[in-house]
Write a structure and sequence with these properties.
Chain lengths: 317, 258
């Protein structure tokens, strides 16, 4: 399915959305840019640690609520700039969890249980400080009534634990991930780290997969051990080479530190940021047109050694 | 680089953290200077230590310095590339968890080793918002030994945190266990001025070592809370071997050390 059509069909104003990847790796950027082009608003975004995708979406004004553990984009922006700015200016509502808590929440959603327990976070302000008010939580049936809960261990002190922290399941309306290989039915093969993509996908009502390589079914069935996501979870598959650019895809290309720095520099000033998104996102009709603007020279510079997985000795700063 | 070149503050910090890592440790690391410390330890004092990352990579080759824990440089030649769920389970698991030592950074630390990586000012409407917990809260909750890397400044060594992201000894004495946490959290603080540890009974930070050229008074001046300096001794300076490995093997381009 063309990406434009998949976004129009599955991502609506007010959708609860999660995106895959981690900081500057395997973010579904082509899909993120298409969401921005289509001016979809009031999204409720769930992530563990995200960077480039999250900050572009926040900067474009697509996000109104956020549940997240970490917003950073590597050396170019140790804290995501548009994220920090919109939190400081009260432009978005947010809840702050840890990475394990968010991963467990996706896993609970994938398992169909209302919550999962952990021993993380006791005594921290993650437990005491809530970003969504009780009134907001009550008024929206898609938001759970409590950020989290503490329960005495029902098995006495089994496993040396007197209490557990319970974190509520997440079932997003739509999850979008970018992978190295998929077939037309949606079976996916991810190389390198999977982060929490598998849990995010399995928790989600709808799933869009964008892929570097669209391969035939036989190519994936020969080595099923290398496939993490079976097609039953997937709603749409879009073939988008360089679909995670400017973030990295192990075995295919590196992050583009030049582009990430350009983004970070523009993000610091409102007028420059508008100009930046007008040029690179709204100024391109699709991801191919965006990549034409970037130019073959940059693409060559970031192209990965297929075995080592990254661009060896690439100039980074 | 000239072997007689004296060490820089970043170099001594890296070496002091590396000295905390023992052979056989599983080292949880972020990127930047903490990763450099973990890598240097492997070549200096802990050849059988194993690096691992919250993203799920373990024992990666690290031929080039990664800039993020999701960098593809972390995925190459790892023992396994798994997922966040596995990485945190490794720490929460009482068998492997015991062997883990972690290196964390923070914007603020208090006398009990609690860390803030979330915000300055009010949580819902902060003056400055930082990246957030990431895995920091999880690590400080599970891992028995954590090294905190900090710049030693009064605004960072505070009486009270603006936001408690990652639990240390909470309010001292046995408050950590009473809250439901296993023993652990920050056990040593390495700064550009010295090395701090925590009193076993009270859970409060004290000065353990000050670097050559630094006085305990300077550390007191740069700390907002009262710091016990009665047990402090001067650090053995970095050896030529330690400096040589750091400079020539791990960061010859000085991507991190400068």
């Amino acid at each position: 399915m063309p990406l434009q059509q998949a976004i129009t069909r599955y991502v609506k104003d007010g959708s609860h959305i999660s995106i895959g990847g981690f900081t500057l790796s395997r973010n579904p950027m082509a899909a993120v840019y298409e969401i921005i082009r289509q001016k979809i608003k009031h999204l409720h975004l769930y992530a563990h640690s995200n960077g480039t995708g999250l900050d572009e979406l926040i900067g474009a004004g697509c996000i109104s609520k956020l549940e997240i553990a970490y917003a950073g984009n590597g050396k170019a922006a140790p804290t995501c700039i548009r994220f920090a700015r919109s939190v400081q200016n009260n432009e978005i509502l947010f809840e702050h969890y840890s990475n394990f808590m968010m991963s467990l929440r996706f896993m609970a959603g994938a398992m169909g249980v209302p919550f999962l327990p952990t021993l993380s976070g006791f005594g921290s302000d993650i437990i005491t400080k809530w970003g969504f008010s009780k009134a907001l939580r009550r008024s929206d049936s898609k938001i759970v009534d409590k950020k989290l809960a503490i329960m005495d261990n029902p098995f006495g002190d089994w496993a040396g634990t007197s209490k557990v922290l319970l974190v509520p399941a997440i079932n997003p309306d739509i999850t979008i991930i970018h992978v190295q290989k998929a077939d037309a039915m949606g079976t996916c093969s991810i190389q390198g780290l999977a982060f929490a993509d598998i849990e995010q996908v399995k928790a989600s009502k709808h799933v869009i997969v964008t892929c570097e390589e669209l391969v035939n079914k036989e190519a994936l069935r020969q080595n099923p051990d290398l496939n993490q996501i079976p097609f039953i979870h997937v709603s749409a598959v879009c073939h988008v080479p360089l679909g995670a650019y400017p973030t990295a895809v192990f075995g295919h290309y590196d992050y583009d530190s030049v582009y990430l720095r350009r983004f970070a520099t523009a993000a610091k000033k409102q007028d420059e940021f508008i100009k930046y998104q007008d040029t690179y996102i709204h100024g391109a009709k699709d991801h191919d047109a965006f990549l034409t603007m970037i130019g073959q020279e940059r693409i060559n510079a970031i192209t990965a050694d297929p075995i080592i997985g990254y661009s060896v000795n690439m100039k980074r700063d | 680089m000239n072997k007689m070149h004296p060490h820089t503050p970043r170099e001594i910090m890296t070496i002091m953290a590396a000295r905390e890592i023992k052979n056989g440790d599983i080292v949880f690391s972020g990127t930047g200077i903490s990763m450099l410390a973990a890598m240097a330890a492997k070549n200096i004092n802990a050849p059988d230590s194993v690096l691992f990352f919250e993203t799920g990579a373990i024992d990666s080759l690290l031929e080039e310095l990664p800039f993020a824990v999701a960098d593809s440089r972390i995925m190459y030649w790892a023992a396994a590339n798994s997922r966040l769920i596995d990485a945190f389970a490794t720490m929460q698991n009482p068998i492997t968890g015991k062997k883990v030592i972690a290196i964390l950074g923070a914007a603020q630390i208090d006398p009990y080793g609690n860390l803030n990586t979330t915000c300055i000012g009010e949580y819902s409407s902060p003056d400055i918002r930082f990246s957030g917990s990431g895995g920091g809260c999880d690590v400080a909750s599970f891992v028995p030994r954590c090294i905190a890397f900090m710049q030693h400044e009064k605004r960072k060594f505070v009486k009270k945190l603006d936001y408690l992201t990652s639990p240390g000894q909470l309010e001292g004495e046995n408050s950590r266990q009473a809250a439901g946490l296993k023993p652990g959290g920050v056990s040593v603080v390495v700064t550009n001025l010295g090395v701090m540890r925590f009193d076993k009974k009270t859970g409060r930070m004290y000065l353990d070592q000050f670097y050559p050229g630094v006085t305990p008074e300077k550390i007191i001046e740069n700390t907002e809370f009262d710091m016990d300096v009665s047990r402090a001794t001067q650090t053995d300076p970095p050896t030529q071997t330690e400096l040589k490995i750091l400079r020539e093997v791990y960061d010859p381009q000085r991507l991190i050390l400068d």
